[in-house]
Amino acid sequence: MGSRYSAWSLLRHGLTGGDWSRAFRHHPVKNSYDVVIIGGGVHGLAAAYYLAKNHGITNVAVLEKSYIGSGGSGRNTAILRSNYLTPEGIRFYDRSVKLYEHLAADLNFNVMFSQRGHLTLAHNDSSLRTMAWRAEVNKLQGVDSSVIGPDEISKLVPYLDTSAHTRYPILGALYHPPGGIIRHDAVVWGYARAADALGVHIHQNTELVGIDVEANRVVGVRTAGGDRISTPIVLNCTAGWSTLISDLAGVSMPVQTFPLQAAVTEPVKPFLDTVVVSGTLHTYVSQTDRGELVFGASVDPFASYSTRGSLEFVEGLAGHVLELMPALSKMRLLRQWAGLCDMTPDYSPIMGPTPVEGFHVDVGWGTYGFKAGPVSGEAMADCIAGGRPPEIISAFGLDRFEAGRLVGEKGAAAVGH
């Protein structure tokens, strides 16, 4: 709630059901905007905020077909890290972590970022070599990352089975102290509140149905409610529907959409301070401030727009988690869900302008989009305001697929948590 509510006023409002002021305002849709952003998740809202804050571009509309944060921003496990594999990816995600570290102060909104460390386990010699490779590339980019052995791992996470007699023995891990977790809903609401205060219009329940292009230039958009909005710039910040939105502008994207499932347990006394990831087992686990364990895996093996959970996922997940931490066998799973992940051929995003003038994209985030929200918003705002992609995203352009300049992040993003 920012600084507008004291502890006593929060208690009074909670007990009396008082009149809560809106975090952001409702505006009628205008006939014209300087920039229209499609997608009311962290990427779209961050881009709107940085356009207004850093560049003074406030005549901006964010169109969301449901409520803000209803897509990928509300269906992820909110793990943050920057220990990627390529120099381009490391620099990019490290900037995002640094923005997240100061985000609560910048937005005057508690986003509950907890930097508790991030462990990526190695169960065989090949994985251990990959972790050593990643650690050295990270160090060269100034990112805190190192390979540690089973004894150090056991001190960080005593409940992990680090014995030599397990089916998947833990030979070591890539330890990344700056990594951690955050409250995804707090980030979305914080950006929305701050963008609104700077004059940005946020339109919920406003579905895009058309993008008007004349002479290979964007001239406007159309909504399901019958609104026709004139604009020279459209930014596609969607996940799951990114290809469909780009098709409206006549731009084809090399993206496939896959479901990614996750689950949460009953709350228990906090015992897991570190985020634990196993690429070999396609499993990751963290514990929230409320005590729930949040589990996830890799994307489903088939392309789909389904957000339903499956019994197969729960069975496989439970088995792998118990191989890592047998003491969790009595815990009860409360619920599961799925989100949609747009996967590119090289597991890196697509950012920047497209062959259609005025149509920009910030898409293809796979399983790692939420951790990139701040830097993506900042970079896309720079791109729109400056007329060209800033260096930090220059490697992620759409033209790299035709030119063969792929940014291969599969080794650090296949289980991207």
| CATH classification, class level of the largest domain | Alpha Beta
Number of helices: 12
Instruction: State the helicity in percent bands.
Output: 25-40%
What is the CATH T-level topology of the largest domain?
A: FAD/NAD(P)-binding domain
* Computed structural class: alpha/beta
Question: Could you provide a short overview of the structure?
Answer:
The chain is α/β, with parallel strands linked by helices. It contains twelve helices and 19 strands.
Could you walk me through the main structural features you see in this protein, from its secondary elements to its overall organization?
With 417 residues, the protein is an alpha/beta fold. It is 30% helix and 22% strand. It folds into two domains: 24-80 and 85-94 and 184-255 and 346-413, FAD/NAD(P)-binding domain (3-Layer(bba) Sandwich); 114-180 and 256-343, D-Amino Acid Oxidase, subunit A, domain 2 (D-Amino Acid Oxidase, Chain A, domain 2), CATH 3.30.9.10. It has helices at 7-16, 42-55, 87-101, 103-107, 125-140, 150-156, 184-197, 242-248, 311-324, 373-386, 400-403, 410-413; strands at 35-38, 60-63, 79-80, 118-122, 146-148, 172-176, 180-181, 201-203, 208-214, 217-223, 228-230, 234-236, 256-265, 275-278, 283-287, 293-296, 333-343, 350-353, 359-363. The protein has an eight-stranded mixed beta sheet with strand order 5-6-4-14-15-16-13-17. A six-stranded mixed beta sheet has the order 8-2-1-12-19-18, sandwiched between helices. Strands 9-10-11 form a three-stranded antiparallel beta sheet, with no helix packed on it. It is globular.
